[in-house]
Amino acid sequence: MISLDGVMQAPGGQKEDTSGGFKYGGWTAPYGDKAFGEVVQKELQQPADYLLGRKTFKIWEAYWPKHGDFWPGINTGTKYVLSKTVKKTDWENTVFLKNLAGIKKLKNSKGSDIQVWGSAELIQLLLKNDLVDELKLKIYPLTLGKGKKLFDKGTVPAALTLTESTVTPKGVIIAYYKRAGKVKTGTIGA
After folding, report:
1. 53 C-beta neighbours (distance < 10 Å), count
2. 101, 98, 150: which is closest to 121 by C-alpha?
3. What pTM was estimated for this model as a whole?
4. How far, in Å, are 71, 108, 131, 176 from residue 156 at the CA level?
5. Alpha helices in 64-139, H assignment, sequence order
6. Which phi and psi angles does 115 have, rounded to 5°?
7. CA atoms within 13 A on the CB side of 113
8. Residue 66: how many CA atoms within 13 Å on its side-chain side?
9. Predicted confidence (pLDDT) per residue in 132-176, tens digit
10. Which terminal Cβ of the chain has fewer Cβ within 10 Å, N or C?
């Protein structure tokens, strides 16, 4: 979930993540509608495991074990958490990874698809190290200015192909992109 200017911080609630003085928590709420709900429910039904950053994990660990009826897969799927400080939890099916090497080993293993939800710093680390195969973006029709951004600290140049897209009645653009090799350049009109 990102704004037009790339902010992805605290989409779900006013007190979700106020770090850096962010004051627009819950900015996605006014854009919910039936079409958006159907897309999200389809995504939540996909079998997957999850890769989370420490901050997102701490928020989710307090919420999702008690709300699994809405998203059963988040409790039954394996949660891989990148953290140097958090090493244990009561949340079932959680594995802690200490570093980028652990993520690379996970990416090269067989198993379920691995999804990242939230986790701005983790996504930037993955993009910087060319570890992203697909982006599933929900682009909201607003700008937020300051806040944690999706493409904030650089990425590996890469071409992407749009594989699916929808625009909801409230203007949210839902776009799925898969990696499509290297960036190609040329000259317009040549």
Report:
1. 19
2. 150
3. 0.89
4. 32, 19, 9, 18
5. 72-76, 100-107, 120-128
6. -110, 145
7. 14
8. 5
9. 999 999 999 999 999 999 887 778 899 999 999 999 999 999 999
10. C
